[in-house]
Amino acid sequence: MKKTRLLSISALALASSLALSGCTALVVGATAVGISAATDTRSVGTQLDDQTIEVRVITALQTDDRFDESRIQVVSFNRSVLLLGQVGNSSLRDLASHVVRNTKGVDRVHNELKVAPVISFGQISKDTYITSKIKAKFVADDVIKASDIKVVTEGGEVALMGIVSRDVAQQAIEIARNINGVTRVIDAFDAK
């Protein structure tokens, strides 16, 4: 606990000093890695690789005007990329997969994009609440180590990522499935 607190304070101090010097983009990455590195089971190198992959994919999608009317969440965990959100047609869904597959460092793609209208702010708020409820249940569970599992919710669909045993994965899926508002659970786990 002391190590986590010290690391958090150090990251905050680094963020503050860098923000004053105008390096805001660096601050976000440095702070996020500093705080998550203390509890994440992946190596710091893998965490940085995942962040780099996310930035590359997001940049590629944002610079392509065809995605202007889309909402796409990009999550990389252990070099597996998960795409969640809404696009205007199946061609855009396929194009997003192509962009991810051609991104340096990506091993697997989980394309869960829906051909549908972009969800409302109200739904985004509900999704945030669902994610927090699932994470709280994971923290309270005796079998699951909450820091081993990444939870992402989009349109009531919950995606679970992490490197866990099959038993832990099944327990996590069952917990998520039983949270009010969850319409589907996506198993994007890597086997341990």
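The above is record 1. Record 2 follows with the same two-line structure.
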Amino acid sequence: MIDKPSFDTIFMNLASDLARRSHCVKAQVGAVLTKDTRIISIGYNGPPAGTHNCDEEWPETGCPRDARGSCSLALHAEENAILYAVKNGADLQGSTLYLTLSPCLPCARIIYSSGVKRVYYKSSYAKYKGLPSDEGVDFLNKFGVIALQAGVEST
């Protein structure tokens, strides 16, 4: 019998590959939005298409920072994936989102509102930002969206 990777593994690997497409000089994040083992949309972090390429315009420093020290120009990977899917009429109710970095709280609200029911993430946004907790993950789990770190069993 052939040993086949799970769809979770395949989609997380794709999200990791997509992250490498990002023009951000600070962090590269990828997203894959799926439903019933089919890809609905993909995304990676960066400014809206046709505006800036941070690695070309600000190769040493990255784009200007906002008051919290975050990128002032970029859409997050999950925002890009969800926006593209919605723009093209996809039904996201019951879908699954694979992310290389857990969602921030604003993205968690978008994920919840769009109808996504499961989120699998590779690394912690809180750890990356030096925050005490993953507020986005906590929000999703509180309101019925399953949000789990890939490779970590829930208790």
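The radius of gyration is 15 Å.
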